[in-house]
Design a protein that fits this description.
11-stranded mixed sheet; UDP-N-acetylmuramoyl-L-alanine:D-glutamate ligase; single chain; 17% strand; 3 domains
Length: 549
């Protein structure tokens, strides 16, 4: 049974007695090593701030940490930040504690992750160590693991360390603890390879001597980022490690989430080493950041939120109905499809719970249908414009953008009908736009990335949901949603997202929060449905209600 942690703080640089730290299964260390069960240090040994928690995993190294991702992480101002490598360097330079202290905590976090991966007494671990602080973290981990009875060998890139540097000091302590340190050589068998070669500042390609190690068949634990991966972009320009697990420090980096990062990093543990603050490049959306408002006891079908989906054309009738059923299952009290008049009978037979409103007598909308469409949608709180609309509706869409004075979500062919961002900027009421990469590029002429999407949001006042893996929600904040995966790469799942988003918006969330919440729970729904079979849009739409409350 895990109990609440006991915290023991030793403020001086020397201490007596030591805080007894529990954490490594069955370890009986030598008396000169700190940080293990039953250890009693000698007078004069350096003391940091530690916590005692029975058993392992779940051990916390000091006050202020929150359990997350298997180890520890910190939410700053209520959210989990994603910071750039440049911001990481700035925080390191501004740290009030010595680099050796931060390195000690980082290396301990790496050692604990290795143990969590199954490393124990008699295991053989090879640590590939670079010349900088990333290598220093590896040397600290080597020392801790060696004291646990692990057979540790460090293969060092670039020869011996400068012993006056923090990394050099860590290397000397590892050697004194009996760790073998050799020059980097060809790959050898190991129970675990720890990649401590390059940190988040890496760019370009790896040295040739490292390339053979990137293909190791053995499990890899990466320190900060897998070497060869650009921590700013997730790009890979040559050979790179593919880790089973990555331990990073303080915060996620963009490269963990972008490009090849998700495939290269494996599961990610965030270890809080005592850095504070930092300007977030992105904010990672988690469950706590994705609210779903409750219904009041006195709610009725029109006060609970209402959504009108405007769309439909021959061959694309399913899209509007998928959005409408998702809105209904997503908690909206009243939902209607507003469609071309010739298609109304088709829609009326699709769902008993969704109302239909036919406009005109054709099977496609015409420019002159704008007034009637506005009239049919007038009672609804939110309009979704675009699912199944078809191409060639520029004038119709422009007329609705100009005249509709309530919340508007533009999706699919509604986006394709836009002439440019100026139409969005001209709106004076809240707007959400949900492009995928191709739609975004056609609309803006810019590369579809979160920075360009943030520029579009800032220039128009619209909330921009750039769909993909991950999905970005750009408004007053820059949020990244990584809850979904490739299982959502199926026709119609974007229509389901649009309807669910509109439902949460109609239920009282702001545009940005509704967009973020819908993207998160849509991803969760897809991921959980994928555990039992292929995710299709109709199944996703019908089951989204499990995630709506």
């Amino acid at each position: 049974m895990v109990t609440s942690p006991r915290f023991v703080e030793c403020r001086p640089t020397v201490c007596e007695p030591w805080a007894v730290v529990q954490g490594f299964r069955g370890c009986q260390p030598r008396v000169e090593e700190s940080g293990f069960r039953g250890y009693q240090p000698t007078v004069g040994e350096r003391c940091e701030l530690w916590a005692v928690r029975p058993g392992f995993p779940g051990w916390e190294p000091w006050v202020g940490m929150a359990a997350s991702h298997g180890l520890w992480s910190r939410r700053i101002n209520g959210v989990k930040p994603v910071i750039t490598p440049e911001e990481t360097a700035r925080l390191d330079a501004a740290a009030v504690e010595a680099a050796e202290v931060l390195m000690e905590r980082a290396g301990l976090g790496v050692a604990l992750a290795a143990v969590d991966m199954g490393v124990g007494y008699g295991s053989h671990v090879v640590i590939l160590a670079g010349k900088g602080n990333n290598g220093g973290d590896g040397y600290v981990a080597a020392r801790y693991l060696a004291r646990r009875g692990v057979d540790v060998t460090v293969q060092a890139l670039g020869g011996s360390q400068d012993e006056t540097s923090p990394a050099g000091h860590a290397a000397a302590r590892a050697a004194a603890a009996g760790v073998r340190i050799n020059a980097l050589a060809d790959p050898v068998p190991a129970d675990l390879v720890i990649d401590a070669l390059f940190g988040v500042g890496f760019h370009g390609t790896l040295p040739d001597v490292i390339a053979p190690w990137t293909g190791t068949p053995h499990p890899v634990l990466a320190v900060d980022v897998p070497s060869g991966l650009d921590a700013a972009s997730g790009a890979v320009a040559g050979p790179a490690f593919t880790a089973h697990r990555t331990v990073t420090f303080h915060s996620l980096k963009p490269g963990h989430l972008l490009g090849e990062g998700p495939e290269r990093c494996g599961s990610i543990s965030i270890v809080d080493i005592g850095l504070s603050g930092g300007n977030a490049e992105l904010l990672l959306c988690e469950e706590v950041d994705a609210p779903r408002p409750p219904r009041l006891r006195t709610s009725h079908k029109w006060s609970a939120g209402s959504v009108a989906v405007v769309g439909g054309s021959p061959g694309l009738t399913g899209a509007a109905m998928l959005a409408a059923t998702a809105a209904l299952h997503g908690g909206a009290g009243s939902v209607a499809v507003v469609c071309p008049g010739a298609l109304q009978s088709i829609y009326a037979g699709m769902s008993a719970g969704v109302m239909t409103r036919g406009v005109g007598d054709a099977d496609r909308f015409r420019q002159g249908d704008v007034p009637a469409t506005l009239e049919e949608a007038s009672r609804f709180d939110v309009m979704v414009l675009g699912p199944g609309l078809g191409r060639g509706h520029e004038a119709f869409v422009d007329g609705l953008l100009t005249a509709w004075d309530k919340p508007l979500l533009i999706d699919a062919d509604g986006i394709n009908a836009l002439a440019g961002a100026d139409q969005l900027a001209a709106r004076t009421t809240p707007t959400i736009i949900t492009p995928h990469a191709g739609e975004f590029a056609r609309l803006t002429g810019a590369q579809a990335d979160y920075r360009s999407a943030a520029t579009l949001a800032a220039g128009t006042g619209a909330v921009v949901v750039l769909k993909g893996n991950p999905t970005f929600v750009l408004g007053a904040e820059r949020s990244v949603v990584a809850s979904g995966g490739a299982e959502l790469a199926t026709i119609g799942t974007g229509d389901v997202l649009a309807g669910f988003m509109a439902a949460l918006w109609s239920r009282g969330l702001s545009a940005e929060v509704a967009a973020r919440s819908a993207a998160y729970w849509h991803g969760r729904a897809g991921a959980e449905l994928a555990e039992t079979g292929t995710v299709t849009a109709d199944v996703l739409s019908a089951t989204i209600g499990r995630y709506a409350w």
